[in-house]
Amino acid sequence: MVAKRLLLALALALVLATHYRALQAAEGAAGTCRSGPRGGIDPKPVRASIFNELTVQEIYAVLRWTLKKFPGTKYQGDIPGPGGQNGDNVDILPTDNYIYRVILKDPPKQAALAYLDNRGPKPARMARVIIVRGAAKPRDVMEYAVGPLPLGPGAKATPLFKPGQVPYVKKPEDAPEHTLMEEKIGDAADQMKTLFRFMTSSPANSDKCYGPADECNSDYFGWWCSASLLEDGTKRVSNIQWWFQARGAKSGNELNLMPLPLYMRIDVTSPNYNNWRIFDLVYCNQGPFATPAALMAAFNAGKIKKCTTPYGKPGYDDTWTRTDVARGTRVRESAAIAGPRTIWPEGQRFGLKDAASQTGRGFTYMGWEGHVTVDPYTGIQFHDIKFKGRRVLYELALKELYAQYAGVSMPGQVTYFDSVYGIGSNARPLRPGLDCPENAEYMGVSFLSYDAEVGYMPRVVCFFEDDLGQADWRHTHTDATPPHVDGVRSSALTIRFVTTPAYWDPVFGTSAPDRAYMPRVQGNTAGVLHDHLGLWKVDLDVTGAANRLVKKSVHFGSYKQAGVFNEPGWGYKDGFKYMKEELIPKEAGFSYDYKVPAVYQVQSMTEKNKWGSPKAYTVSVGYTTSQLLPPGHPIARAMAWSTNHLWATVQKDNEEHGHYSIYDQHSSRRPAFSFNEYVDGESIMGKDIVLWVTMGAQHVPRSEDVPLITNHGTHMTIKPFNYFDELPTMDIVDKKVFGTCTTDLGYAAQTTWRPN
């Protein structure tokens, strides 16, 4: 970015062991230093607040209205106030209709732009309501646009799907289904109490088994399900993997480092859950066994190899799995001394607006302004980003996080779409002094959660200006009298969001792990090779919505190849480095080839800079991996967006997300939607172009991933290309002498900093 950096940072915290303490700092707490001319907190809403996610009150209002609009439809959570309900009194069966999600439905872009630019009325505020219809024939999932909000006599529910378009077997993962699955899984585990004790090295009379409470303490175990690749669009089958929790109910996410050598499948296709069945049980890579009874018969008769883990032994030390315990007396030299902190010597230079909102903020910073909110399911979203009053980005939004695991056994080839579980709703309050400086500002997110609870989570996004510890630009005047250095210290407005939607999946190794895909990382634990990919939507409007896409690539070749036909009579004769410019006429996808460096420019159709070059912005990605799955893989069509690093499409309001992952976690080989449908050969010349960016990393597990996995870093850069006539940061003051107050760190002092 320009004129100081605007860092839009998504910290993806995929953790093995999470230790959470309630923090006493209030949301929005800040120091008492004076603010700069654009700093401070303004309670007034901004026009971009039309993008604020639904509030808790709006979600409850939509729930009440929808339950009245669709008689017989259920909701399994609490609804307070008149016309409310106690969710504990609501049971949901596979033959019921019930509300799954309530989220904001984004306004149409043209209507939003007209309002943002004072050319039109405020767009109607609408909710997107997802209803799972187990009572329909055939059973399916429906989406409705409900509104306008606030709901009044004119409110309507407009269908967004056709009946039967999304079959029931592709419905999202949810708490009602898992509640019923628990009954079947618990019944199966009850038949295997002996096996549970044996494979955890627990005493024969131990309560470390999964079954009736009078005999077993089920808190020592956990199970997790993942969609089976066996699904073909007619069946709904999940793989079940088991884990051990060494401290029972007091355990945290460290259970993910103590997997057990037991897997099974559950078929939940039937509308009669009494017909759901457990099958294909695998113990120590032996099987599959058709039923729990068949597995136990082979186990008790000694017909199969028996394997065990040490986790349940009395006195077993599980500290290797945890971050919330001291590591003995090991403390690095000087580690007990407090580290650096971020302060703002003369006060806050950024400003926040719409501070009264639960779910969105406008922000300003040294010529920049924009809006941020958090979608409960897809995560952080930015809208209407401008520099010095001119819009650069209409939308910059995270749309998906995905992980796909290797493996040849039952839990192998597992795929997780994190939006299914809630990238935004699984964010937790950021810790001041750790995730963000002590003097940062915050905002939260409201949501209808995966387990049917309406809630609000504060401090999931923080705002602060960060000292980057280097020069934004510098120049040494070596021949001047006296020689000297000019420059500006580099800083950036950082907007940070951290989410914990899922866990890393280690597996138990019964023998030497297969180093081809599963290196051993601890005594009984091997980590599975997998990747992490994210999808971002980048809607640039460069001097307006009508743009074109140009690829500029660098090559080495002959003068003729470069189009230079008057070959000079001097210099190197065999060629030179040159740039090739290619106009991209239609919707298409592109992958980076580091042997042929290239930049992709979204260019203005109408404006040039002072030197005659079209004004443009580029999008480039730092180190990133590629999607390695072949086209025929069961999830390939559902993950079509991941087959290229960059896609260019024409903006359409109904092409909002790039992926309906909540419907493609199951039966992914028959996706409800494929990104290929966006790319249909339509011309993008002079159109409103949307770029879709894929970036991520391959995770090759290592022992240093215990107890926490490595944070795999990658990044995307959006920067001007001939948009300005010169380096735009030349209007930043290089201030060397200033007073400072440091009350944000808990003490007051007035100091003047004077460099030598």
Automatic annotation (TrEMBL):
Cofactor(s) listed in the protein's UniProt record: Cu cation
Enzyme class: oxidoreductase
GO biological process, one term: amine metabolic process
Keywords: Copper, Metal-binding, Oxidoreductase, Signal, TPQ
GO cellular component: plasma membrane
Domain Copper amine oxidase catalytic: 342-502, 514-729
Signal peptide interval: 1-17
Family per record: Belongs to the copper/topaquinone oxidase family.
Protein known as: Amine oxidase
